[in-house]
Amino acid sequence: MKYTKIKQIAKGWSSYIWLVKNKKGEEFVLKEVREKSPRKDLANREGKMLLLANSVGVGPKVKEINFEKNFVVMEYIKGEKFFDFILSKRFEGEITQTQIYELIKELFRQLYLLDTINLSHNQLQIGKNILVKQIFDKEKKVIKYYPVIIDFEKATIKEKNCTKNLGQLFAMCFYNPNGIIAKRIREKLNLTI
Ligand SMILES: Nc1ncnc2c1ncn2[C@@H]1O[C@H](COP(=O)(O)OP(=O)(O)O)[C@@H](O)[C@H]1O
Ligand SMILES: [Mg+2]
To answer: N or C end of the chain: smaller count of CB under 10 Å?
Structure first.
């Protein structure tokens, strides 16, 4: 399949993320390795791990893995990073406690699904590898926020029950004593630990 690059979305230390479109005009995200990066097996690692995650309904859907050119094409998720979402003014204001509970509950559900296949994401602790999508009703009012876990580049398959998934999410959302995300979520939900 041929893709046209529309714009660069992000530049990581080892990869470039592009918004692209195919011949039908459908938008996707293309993640490719940076020329200078020593880590040349992106398609192999990220592509395979993302496919496994997709097998339990988690992560942006894989469209294509190109091993030769070393890139992965996946579903484009229109959303903001969990970290930015929690730090936003909206989070303090109009976003309800129920919406936060539902979002976190869904995240735990997805991580439980990854646990069923022993897939440890390994990079969930700072909230930058989770995108938050807005779900609208007919009047275009936001009714809920839905999380999509991205960036499976460092994911690994662990022994049974040894993934870091739930632990990392618990720490980030609730327990981390110095974490800004945990602090804000505890305040929003009136939790003390
Ligand atoms: N499927 C996607 N849909 C929308 N944006 C994405 C998608 N994948 C990555 N991004 C954007 O690109 C950024 C970097 O992607 P990521 O996979 O985390 O690579 P890195 O290894 O550079 O951290 C993300 O924080 C997000 O903003
Ligand atoms: Mg990342």
So the answer is: C
